[in-house]
Amino acid sequence: MEKKVQRRATRFVTSRHRNRSSDSSDFNARTGCDDDFVIIDENEHGDNNLSDFIENPVNALKDLSFPIKRVNMDKGKNRYGNMLLNFCKGNGVFILNGRMGRDQNIGRFTCRNASVVDYCISSPGLLKSFKDFEVLDSSKLLSDVHNPISVTFYCNKNVVNDHAENVDCNSHDNTVKKINRWDSEKIKDFQNNIDVEKIVELEYKLCNTDLNDVNKNVINTFIGDLCNIFVRCGQATFGISSVKRNKNK
């Protein structure tokens, strides 16, 4: 787990977009209510005007009216929590849990209703792009112990969704690709490979669909979307094999 935290931290700080970057993950880090920032005392530098050259990341929170101190229902701490806090302090990165959106001043538990180990962190330059942050109710379909985290961004550009799939255009090929057999030993991998964002997106569509507009086509669309989620999950978990086509078909 320590190497996992270090890898994510390294990828974050080495990104060419590090000034506008965020990361959301299970860090296995319990941070309590300790500060994830260092306040730069402008009076401490006296008359040398060093404060004019030192960027104070905390100002980004003040500019957006985000609370400086975050709230956390989990008061415990562990070694990974100290690592995450030190990373935030050293790189001017902030934890969003308990600080913004519907989780502001709450800091809801994210694991077993007993601890906060799943976080979304962000660099100051990206904070203004966040519209909402929320810890959702737990779902056995998505995880046996963790709560999903929902993050919403503002978007000022037209986004075109490209639903094109990779297809085998070799029509002369006498093989077809199929998902390998179910392997009970990979149940955990299957659960982890479920696209949570797609599930949340589908749930949102279901909850916001007018029942008066529901017909056979609408139902088939929802069923198709759900099937595609599990098909892609199966491909990622069990792999794909090429088998010969049945010549009788």
TrEMBL record:
Stated name of the protein: Endonuclease/exonuclease/phosphatase domain-containing protein
Ranges where the record places region Disordered: 1-27
Basic residues compositional bias, start-end: 1-19
Biological source species: Mytilus galloprovincialis
Domain of life: Eukaryota
UniProt xrefs under InterPro entries: Endo/exonu/phosph_ase_sf
Taxonomic lineage of the native organism: Eukaryota, Metazoa, Spiralia, Lophotrochozoa, Mollusca
